[in-house]
Amino acid sequence: MNRLGFIFTLGLSLLLGSHPARGQTVEMISPAQVRQQLAGRLSAEELDQLKIPFAANEEIRELSAKLTAHAHSDDQKLRALLHYFRKQNFAQQYHQGHNRTAREVLAQGRGNCVAYTSLFIAMARAAGLRAFYLDASQVQNEFGRSGSILVDYGHIMAGVRIGARVLPVDFDGQARKINRYQAIDDLQAIADFYNNLGFERTWAGQSYGQVDKQAVVEAFDLATRIWPDFARAWNNLGVALVRNGQPERAMLAYRRAQAIDPAMPAPHANLGHVLARLRQADASLAAYHRAVELDATNAHYRFFLGRALAQQGQYPQALAQLEKGARLNPELPNIQMEMARIHQGLGEDGQARRLAERVLQMVPGHHFANVLIQNLDRKGG
């Protein structure tokens, strides 16, 4: 869950007055059933080490029984659990990098929305409630320095079915209203847990200056094998494989993501990067064109396409894309720098200088902007 927030947005009046998600329900399975269903996808060692985020231990079951001991209905059980979560003030410890299981959250007292949701689901199921995961996501892109695009789930929450109602239970770190969500099954939730783990390993590695690239690959790969139709995890696996020096495998992952979700632009742009590195210019250009077609409002995709067009000498078309990107995001220095290079190549030194100076305003000391201006100065001298 790619966010950091400090506001606990779980209120009994809000929850019980929220819009019910009629007809949304999923099959709830036990940890033993999880391993049974995954036996053909994971090795014996992977099954033995598999983390099941909603698995309850004796401590969780005892706590749930204690909290709901005086409840005489499912509504009362739900209220008792919500009161406990509010009292614990977990969300004050909300952190995007704490992707934890229910057991770990109870022991450590902090986590992200998946972690808190997993603890709630474990306790709710122990109390006999029909609790499951809800995906309230909006796609969130994370652009790396090389242009690689990781795609993260926006938000996971819980749902509780009581009679004909499905009541959403939200452990968001931000105060906002959520109107759309979809029930996901337990295997999808586990896959989401490992997709988040891949992000966590990336963030943690960057913080300490050393990313365990193979560990990141393993997390995203496990997510795709737990839920083979997880398009975003396939895209993220492709990024991890590229960073781990495996571009051929990465292309297969991107193409799998495209096949599962043809409307998602990130794997097209990411495939374009790999094809460009492999000097397949026409194929790369086509991939960038497709990304822009799918998301015409994304300045990064416009930049990728404009840069590729410039590399093929199609300068008017390149400038058209870059100018559109600059209007979408005036603070993206890569776009300004690429336009400066093109204008320099066209002999339009004044415009090239103005754009390079704009880059230096955004990024003081920008190496390539300084070099361009120095070259113009020598040319003028």
> Biggest sheet: strands, sense, closure?
4 strands, antiparallel
Strand fraction equals 5-15%
Helices and strands: which structural class? alpha+beta
CATH topology of the domain at 1-210: C8orf32 fold
Order of helices and strands: HHHHHHHEEEEEEHHHHHHHHHHH
Rg calc = 24 Å
Number of DSSP strand runs: 6
Low-confidence stretches: 1-23
> Largest beta sheet: what is the strand line-up?
5-4-1-6
Q: What coarse outline follows from CA principal-axis ratios?
A: elongated
CATH architecture of the domain at 1-210: Roll
Count the DSSP helices: 18
Span between termini = 54 Å
What percent of the residues sit in helical stretches (DSSP H or I)? 55-70%
CATH class annotation of the domain at 1-210: Alpha Beta
Mean pLDDT across the residues is: 85
